[in-house]
Records
---
Amino acid sequence: MKANVDRDLCIGCALCEQTCPEVFRMGDDGLAMVIDEDPPVETYPDIEACVELCPVGAISVSAV
Ligand code: F3S
């Protein structure tokens, strides 16, 4: 699984970083970025939670 952040949509609420810091980090510009392009399977539930939690639907997942 690969996580994606649409930075055109992100409003910097940081919920993704709080929920899954292994994969998401807030950048210096205040927007989220993906820091692990091939995250371990253990993080998949948290990544899925981020997809649901993001208030603007900026996070999506795709097959690697
Ligand atoms: Fe941005 Fe959504 Fe994360 S608004 S900071 S991608 S939860």
Note: The chain has a mean pLDDT of 97.
---
Amino acid sequence: MTDLSRLSIHSDNLFSDAIGAGGVDRQALEDLSPRLADLRERVKAWYADPTPNFLNLPKTTDVATIKHRGQEFVRRFDRCIVFGIGGSSLGGEMLVRTLGPRHPKCAVTFYDNVDPSTLEELGEVDWQHTLLLVISKSGNTAETLSQFLTVLPVMEHQLGDERIKEHTLVITENEEGALFELARRLDLPVIEHPPVGGRFSVLSVVGLLPAYIGGVDIDGVMEGARAMAERCVAADSILENPAYFNGAAQYLHAEQGRTISVVMPYADHLRFIVNWFRQLWAESLGKMDAEGRHKGLTPVEAHGVTDQHSQLQLLLEGPDDKLVTFLTNPAFRYRGSRVPMRFNDIPAIAPLAGHTIGELFYAEFLATRTTLSNRHRPNRTLSLLTRDAYALGELIILMELETVVVAELLGINAFDQPAVEESKVLTRQYLGKMNSVDT
Ligand code: PA5
């Protein structure tokens, strides 16, 4: 098969033959292959299934209808506000912030918190020119419902009861949920959330509609995602399948105590990938197995180069419990202003003079990576060019399937989140004990 991938994956520095003591053994990785036999079958079945699931979204999502609807919104509105939390916002926000143009025709803003001081700014929204997307798979999420209910009077005031439905779209799955009921009572249009978990929903209407409205090339994202899905479905060998290979290697490191997964983008525009990945990795992998053992890998964010002056010392000389994934843009070395050939009699300036800022950025990435490897600290590098929708689509499927591979090897279910319910129940109890103000 010709490899037309635009995502470059460099994993050698996970192995002992490259970095010595802190690396895992390639043979140990091959030995894990039989433990993925069931998963291999499920992966093929998932991809062939006509019902949407995380892996087949690149072919089951109706992109044409999303674009049609999105075009209408972009024509009518110059701002779009998204209410949603967790999987209902992180995927869309990643696509918009990673791939969207700086000045889109319709600017998309995601509100994924209930910090009252941040939400105060919603009082200034001009709803005549604004679209509201309210996204919640369950339709019962306290934060999203509260956001919507508190902004509703402002919308009613500005638009009148009748026109709210022209400015609001609800995405939800649960017809028994409160959001669906609100949509029914207010006569709001509803799109069905596909039957996939929130953190695996980025390649559905949940992520793609806000992304398209924000100017993202969603066809490119889906082409890349489809290519990676097909590549992973086709390759049975653990050595040839990038998700099996990288997932299994991360599992082996976790077994050796390296349970902290640091993701370090050397590109500001790639930072939002880490936000999305953190939820995917933490919520999918942090749980108890059937024997009641606590499992999980902890995602940690570090920014290149900023955190070279913050976390790097820990990564190099702290406990050997981390694996670093670099996200880079190799083209950065050709970009940026050039440091002028002035003042180069000053020793600290001499090495910089004549180089672009991008060369400095890339040199610092190479130096950090080499320093880690020299100290036997495992690392891998995923490279993609700026605003390369195809490569980001590939990366999304790769990271999702790696997550599923690690879950399989840990003996846990990647798709549930049984423990978070307790905190939701307690929140309701604490609210019940607070005096509500009757307005
Ligand atoms: O991935 C998940 O399932 C969760 O993080 C949810 O996305 C999050 O809790 C929000 O749930 P909902 O979409 O039901 O409002």
Note: The radius of gyration is 23 Å.
